[in-house]
Every structure is written in C-alpha cells, then in structure tokens.
Amino acid sequence: MDKLLIVDDNAKIRKQLEWGLGKSYRLLFAEDRIEALSVFQLHKPQAVLLDLGLPPDDMVVDEGFRTLEEMLEIAPSSKIIVVTGQDNRAYARRAVQLGAYDFYSKPIELSELRIILQRTFQLAQLEEENRQLHAKSFKQQALAGLFGQSHSMLEVFATVRKVASSTVPVLLVGESGTGKEMVARAIHALSQRRSELFQPINCSSIPETLLESELFGHEKGAFTGAFCRVRGKLEFADNGTLLLDEIGEMPPALQIKLLRFLQERVLQRVGGRYDIPVDVRVIAATNINVEEAVADGRIREDLYYRLGVITIALPPLRERGDDITLLAHLFLRQYAAEYNKRVRSFSSHAIRIMLDYNWPGNVRELENKVKRAVVMTDGPVIEPTSLGFDVVSEEEGQSSDDFQEKQVCIIAGETLYEARADVERKMILSTFEREQNIVRTARSLGVSRPTLYDLMKKHNILMTTQAHPPR
User: Smallest Cα–Cα separation from 171: which of 308, 372, 351?
Assistant: First the structure.
C-alpha cells in the first residue's frame, strides 16, 4: 500500500484525515519538524501532506518551509503537497520554487484531496517506472562509459564493437571535446587487452626534443641528462593499448620512426642498438582535417594509411539531437551526488537553450556548464543563467534567438510571443470548458494548481462556468 506522511500539529485534522484516507493509504503521522524528518527518513513515503504552520509557532511558516527543504534533501523525488490555512499565493509560489509538488489550502475538502492524492501517487509510480526504464535505457545506450542514442552515435558504438576484438590500428577524428579519448578507452575496455595498460600520450603537449624519448625510451648516456635507461610509452603499453592523441602535431622525422614500428613491431630506444619487440595496439586521434594534413605534408601519407585502417568520425554535439539532454541529465546526476546538492532537473527554458546552442566545445563544454550549474543552483531546478547563458527571462522574450524570431514574425502580423501566448490561453480555456474543475484542468494540462493559477493570472482568465471574459 502506498505510504502517505501527514505532518500537522492539529489532532482533529489528523483524525479527520485518518478517517477519510486510512483505507486507501498506509498513513504515517508527525506533529513537528523533528518527528516529521525522522519518520520521513525511516519510511521514505512517496507523498507527504505538509502543514506549513508547525510548532513552535504555527502562525509562522518558516518551520514548514524548513521541513520541506530538508525532506527534499533526503529524497528529492518525493511528492510533497504543502497545506496551509493561510490562503496566500506567495506561499504557493515559494513552496513550488523550493520543490513542492502542489499546494492545498484549508479547510480540507476530502473529495478534492483524494483526487489530488490519486494523481500524486500515479505520477510518483510513473516517475519510478521511468527511472527504471531510464536506467535500463542508459545501459543500452552506454558503451564502456560512452552514452548516446542519436543515429550517428549508435553507428559509432556499432563500429567500436566490431573493431574492439581485432588488433588493427584505429584513427579517431572529430572536433575537440567530442570524446575521442573516451572512444579509445571503450575500444580498449572491450578488447582482449582490457586487463593490460591503456597508455595515452598527447603529441602536442610534449616538446619535440622530448617526444621521441617519451615514446621510444632512451639508453643511459643517449643525451645530456640521460643518467639511466628509461622505457618509453610504447614499452609500457606492451600487450596493451597506446593512444596517440593529436597525431597531426607529431614531427615528420618521428613519424618515420613510428611508421617503422607499426610495420615491423620492433623499436629501438634513443641511443640504443638493438631491436625490442613490442606488442601494442595503436589508436591515433586528431581534431584536424586529415586529408588536408596529408595534402600539405603535416601527416605522412603512408603513416595515414597505416594508422587509418579503421577510421571513426565522431559527430559534434550540436548534430546529436536529444543526446544533449541525455548527457546533461547524466552529468546533473553525477555532480549532484558528488557535491551533495538537491538539484533534480532543468527548466524547460534551460532545455530549449541547450538544444539551440551551438556547443563549440562539444561534450566537454556541456559537462563543464552542467557542473557549474549544479554548484551555483540552490533550488531543485537549473535555470539558463546557472548554466552560464546570458539570457533574459521567458516573459521578457526568452533569448536573443527568440527576439530575432519575434522580429521576423512581426512582418507576418503576429509575433511568436503573441502566438505562443494565444495558444496557451486557448488550451487553458478549452480544457476548463471540458473539465469544469480547476483540479481536473490542471491535471489534464500536466501542471500543478499553483502553476495553473499563475497562467490564469498571466492571461487574465477567470475560471467560471459562465462565458469567458474578453481578452
């Protein structure tokens, strides 16, 4: 049976609710904040009826709001319906902003409350099923740490699975931040070499004079400062995988030595005289146009063909569609847990901006923005400003892109803003005309009652069974 926690210091109200709801739910009761949090943490109820006026001063709502915030920190997905005897819209807005599911004013009407609770528990069940499906979907969409559901990424996953079992060299191409090293690690993790070392080296971050020694190692006395024999990355990765990142920055002379190693599978340390056999799989990566680099001599043509037996092109984030929101929610959960924040979701405005943004820094930029937003957000919902987007509020015109679209549509006689508002108003009116009830109207529209009240105020709608007021 579904658990419902009732937090109210009024014994008569608790008795009334026990009589009216006891057959439908497993009821739990608390009279103050301390007891409420204890019961809430122990039983993890799916829904809570929380009276804002709690002891020690039931005329002050701060204790109730404090209880609300602390409950959401314990279980962010719980549905908390705030109940107060003070019919104050400001309390409703504040409660919803803090993460309350809905708002209900005394005196309690059991018939209306039953409808609210029925929908609340239905939504809680749907969200739990969605979380389970999402987790299952993530496993299906994940490949050794990679996530995606777009067609282009599913093709990348399919190619990775095919090449992982072989030992052929792989060339990864794509813009900076698209996850080339993650793909290389996925290939290694799915290969027969998974128990051996994965060794990445960035060819652009090591001075040219040291790169040869870093790759191939050196013998004692090979150059000034070579006081002992040192093995290079290739030897360290023996039987494992070596990632040569930014291969386009490798000096031409060193490309020749790497080509010989790929052909013969032996190497000589700097200053050495003997061939050393090494069995290592080489994966190369670059963010430059490889064909152009070959044409202008930055990459040797024979090395390109040797490295690019299999070439995997990683799509930029802006071309991955809904992967943007999938990854954003993944990073949100990761950093919310890491920083112990109760952030749960993105606002619809933030989602739209993320989908419209060009993402020049790709996945790396998205991760950094979400990480920043989690740190900067105090409530349960991330807004565009927390993500670092310089936008105005939705009511003032959303963003610069919306403003431009608005100017274009003025030519046609009606702005997008006006059209959107008109559709919104008509939907509210037609839904209420069908339902003839505020609660059912909110339910049909998929919004809470406080949200519906705000929309009514915004569009100057008076809900009656009479004719609708003029605009």
Answer: 308
